[in-house]
Design goal:
Family: Belongs to the CFAP97 family.
Shape: flat
Number of helices: 6
Number of strands: 0
InterPro entries: CFAP97D1/2, Hmw/CFAP97
Pfam family, one: Hmw_CFAP97
Strand content: under 5%
Order of helices and strands: HHHHHH
Amino acid sequence: MDRGRKAMPVQNKQCHERYVKKCQSMHRERLRDMKCSIDNKMPKASSHLKSNAKKKALMEERFANIERENRMLLEKMSYIIAKKGGIDNKNESVQYGRSLNKDRRKRELQKITKQNQLILSRIQESQPTYDHLAWAEDARANQQFMANICEFKPKTMTMSKMGLTDDGAMADEF
């Protein structure tokens, strides 16, 4: 085992050594079974790809459509110019009516909002079910167990580093 892993504290040395050996054997097995994944051969050159007849035909058809549309637009513009006068100032925008169920949706939204406010007030008034002081005590006990088991003693963590205040409550880090 290398020196870098020896310096890391572990809870159970035998289990850790067994785990490291298993990882190393799996790594060696993967290296042994590894295959080349790069193809260094020259790609095949296909003659039909050099002269793309379909692309040329599509481009010619597209240009023909553009020319036809341009000719139609030119005819329309010449008709408008020749027409003289006759300004079109009618407002023919569509006027939509009111929604038939707008009031019902509004009442339903108000009902949902009222229910949400009632739920929020019940949540805010309820007491917590978890005891944060017991959690803090368990965390301290686990740290002590870890320090007793480790081969190399870790640096002692202060309560503020563990996220606890002096009274054992969890500190808010927002």
